[in-house]
Amino acid sequence: xxRISIRSSFLSKVRIFSFPYSxxxxxxxxxxxxxxxxxxxxxxxxIASQSDPLLAKEIFDLASRxxxxxxxxxxxxxxxxxxxxxxxxxxxxxxxxxxKSHDYxxxxxxxxxxxxxxxxxxxxxxxxxxxxxxxxxxxKPHTKHLNSILxxxxxxxxxxxxxxxxxxxxxxxGVSPNTKSYNILMRAFCLNxxxxxxxxxxxxxxxxxxxxxxESYRILMQGLCRKSQVNKAVDLLEDMLNKGFxxxxxxxxxxxxxxxxxxxxxxxxxxxxxxxxxxxNPDIVHYNTVISxxxxxxxxxxxxxxxxxxxxxxxxxxxLSYQNxxxxxxxxxxxxxxxxxxxxxxxxxxxxxxxxxxLLVKGFCNIGRVEDACEVLxxxxxxxxSPHSDTWVExxxxxxxxxxxxxxxxxxxxxxxxxxxxxxxxxDVGAGLEDYLIKRIQTKSxxx
Length: 448
Fold this sequence. Notes:
The chain is an all-alpha fold. The protein has helices at residues 2-18, 28-32, 40-48, 53-64, 73-85, 89-101, 109-120, 124-136, 143-154, 160-169, 179-191, 195-207, 214-226, 230-242, 249-261, 265-277, 284-296, 300-309, 319-331, 335-347, 354-366, 370-382, 389-401, 405-417, 430-447. It has a domain at 353-448. The protein contains 25 helices and no strands. InterPro entries: PPR_rpt, TPR-like_helical_dom_sf.
């Protein structure tokens, strides 16, 4: 019933559209004559305005049955995309056949959209068939079509071989692969672990006078680093620089990460220093990568030097920079230095993660410096960092066991002066507080 009413509404619309515009009254002939269908342009607008693709197809079919009516190419193009995007693929293919049988002049962009529709629908086989459908229409596929299909195919490892076959046969159909085509396949083979094929493709580019770009080099560098061949990746960087390319930030990130993982920290720092000279200013990611690398290898002192160099190179440390430094210093037992950096950190408006505070508090507690531990706790609370319950568990027994309970009580009072939020979980260490209060009462009793 709903469709019938819509169809009636449509018929009324096309009849209204079909009357010729005239300032004079309609004569008797016009009043009795069945109006002709609206113009193809108006049908196209009506179909384009429909949100329901099946209703749009019904309107299309209804108009098609009118005598001497021919849809415009724009109408068919619009409807094909509507049907495809709603996964009405059989109807979409039927309309494609209509285009072919009625000798329309077809825009290659239609196939660009169809390829993308199949890609979005995760139908790589249909995307591949579209390439050969283009040939059936006697249209020369563009390199853009080839690249779109290659991207869809390599997204599924099962279609890597068909993608390679299409790439190799493309020239037979007048399509010349470009740098992007090579990059798509090189990346796919690197991710698949077939580094030798990626290298072959890279070398083919030079033989076929296709100039690789920064991405081409980066893809190979990433592939080499995944295979732990960081030395070869660095050599490739040198080759890139010698050929006049300026590596991008991601290329350097790849190499720095790999060098740090391989514990080649001297080489990583050297590369970091060379970046600016070679036209790529190191950013916070590059600095933090090297800082983290030094800290993980027990070289927090060297990490501090890197951090101190940052401002002069136009890059300011961030929260992660300081947290890596504090964590690294704590792991080496350098608690005074760590305390100094956590103060600098908070003075710059950064609130340390509770895990960093816990590491420093625990470190001071372990070497019997409870006052310093409490000072760190006071500082962190005043900057809005809520200590974890484990931090309270760590510090409370030390306070209770201290010989100078009067002094420890004063320190605890300082802690309690800071606004403590519900998420500090101090309730979890109620037993520790109870012990402390009992000791205080016993001490006072003995004095009396």
